[in-house]
Design brief:
The protein contains 21 helices and two strands. It has helices spanning 8-15, 40-79, 85-101, 105-109, 112-125, 128-144, 147-165, 172-189, 193-207, 222-226, 228-241, 247-256, 261-266, 273-290, 295-300, 302-316, 325-344, 364-377, 380-384, 389-394, 413-442; strands at 350-354, 357-361. The longest helix is centred in the first third of the chain and has 40 residues, at 40-79. It is globular. The chain starts with 7 loop residues before the first helix and ends with a helix.
Length: 444
């Protein structure tokens, strides 16, 4: 095989260096921030503009909805003048449903005298359906009618609620509703101690129907059983108003006027489950109120507390088969906590989410007041807690912040979805524009 021969010209050719070529793409300065056209400033401006437009559109839609609802509320107020009792009852129910969803301070404040007249007249002259609906809407109207008209509204409605609560001809549901609404009005809006004591006396005359007989036996008549719900409602309302008194005054009241601590303990023997549980809660609230920072009162009630401990223990372990299984379960759960409080001093704690805030209690009186307010106000508790100073004080929430320092409201799911779609669309449009700039820059 013939070998490969290299000439002098061939060697010189391979040893000659190859000249470097400059790429025209690298001749222009390159910036990673610009990325040949992806302008983040335009993107941010587009997204911010989209969010502001979305917020403006949402505010306009919200205002339009509010105006339509206010017109609907005015129609409902006009319907309270209907001649039919059923139509007026339906109007009261619709008004309560509307007030539980949204505040209507502006509309209601302009018709506060008319509304007070409608409620008081329905309670005095209406039938059971209308009376119950009027009693249920009274606390909501008092909280939304405006500070200027609250005192006049309460002064006109409270006597009608009191008369209906003690009216034996009214239905038991109507009387129970009147007891709860009257307690809410007094608890939130009454500053006169004399009026509060008068209402407490009215409650005592109602639940005294469940006291033991003169010979110490339990009332087992049909009336005592049927009226157990009314007696329990009156007893719960009485227990909510008792902590409004000073501890010394509360102790004096329990010692000199009915019901005494012993009378409340007698209600633990009642044949109605609702009355027994209400009596246990009232005993805990009463003992907590009179012994608040007063060791002398605690010593004075020691003998009476020791006397009721065996009965509380029986109720906490009740397993009688003649009672319904559900009733036994509720009773044991309730009285276990009450027994633990009287034996060990352990107080139940409760925390509830109210909007973006949290209301918490570590007392029997706080838990009782929240249960009453939640039952009477329903869904309006969340809405009014951000507007009513009286309700915030009752829920032990801090004072309302100044108008300029209110936190931004949390968007709901639909609003977040629309906002994300608008922002995504703005980013896509800006990216498509900048993508054309980048293609042009790379083609140079």
């Amino acid at each position: 095989m013939k070998g490969l021969q290299l000439t002098h010209e061939t060697i010189e050719y391979f040893n000659t260096p190859v000249p470097k070529t400059e790429h025209r793409r690298t001749e222009q300065p390159y910036s990673s921030d610009e990325d040949a056209g992806i302008d983040m400033t335009i993107d941010n401006c587009s997204e911010t503009s989209a969010q502001s437009d979305l917020k403006s559109n949402h505010d306009d839609a919200e205002n339009e909805i509010q105006e339509k609802l206010e017109e609907k509320v005015l129609e409902i107020v006009e319907a309270l003048n209907a001649r039919s009792n059923a139509a007026r009852a339906t109007a009261f129910l619709q008004l309560r449903a509307a007030l539980q969803r949204r505040p209507f301070d502006t509309v209601l404040s302009a018709h506060r005298a008319t509304l007070a007249d409608h409620v008081s007249r329905a309670l005095r002259r209406g039938k059971d359906g209308e009376r119950k609906a009027a009693a249920a809407v009274a606390p909501l109207l008092a909280l939304q009618i405006g500070e200027e008209g609250t005192e006049e509204f309460v002064a006109e409605v409270r006597p009608a609620l009191t008369a209906t609560a003690t009216d034996k001809t009214a239905s038991l549901e109507t009387r129970s509703e009147c007891c709860s609404s009257l307690a809410v009005l007094c608890y939130l809006m009454e500053d006169d101690l004399t009026e509060i004591l008068e209402v407490m006396r009215v409650y005592e005359t109602i639940f005294s129907g469940s006291y033991l007989k003169g010979d110490g036996s339990v009332k087992v008549s049909g009336a005592a059983v049927e009226e157990g719900g009314v007696h329990a409602a009156a007893l719960d309302a009485w227990a909510v108003l008792l902590p409004l008194l000073a501890p010394a005054h509360a102790l004096q009241l329990l010692s000199s006027a009915p019901p005494s601590f012993a009378k409340l303990a007698d209600l633990l023997e009642a044949c109605s489950l609702e009355v027994r549980m209400a009596a246990g809660g009232a005993l805990a609230v009463a003992y907590e109120t009179v012994t608040d920072g007063d060791t002398g009162a605690e010593t004075e009630l020691t003998a009476q507390v020791e006397a009721i401990l065996p009965r509380l223990s029986e109720l906490a372990k009740d397993s009688h088969k003649y009672r319904a299984k559900r009733d036994r379960k509720i009773q044991r759960a309730t009285f276990r906590d009450i027994l633990k409080y009287f034996e060990e001093g352990e107080v139940p704690c409760m925390s509830v989410r109210v909007g973006i805030e949290t209301a918490s209690w570590s007392s029997w009186s706080g838990c009782a007041s929240y249960a009453l307010l939640a039952a009477a106000l329903g869904g309006a508790l969340q809405t009014l807690a951000t507007r009513s100073p009286r309700l915030r004080a009752a829920l032990q929430l801090p004072d309302l912040p100044p108008l300029g320092n209110k936190p931004a409201l949390k968007l709901n799911k639909l609003q977040r979805h629309l906002q994300n779609n608008a922002a995504c669309k703005a980013r896509t449009v800006a990216r498509n524009k900048n993508r054309d700039k980048r293609s042009a820059a790379l083609a140079i």
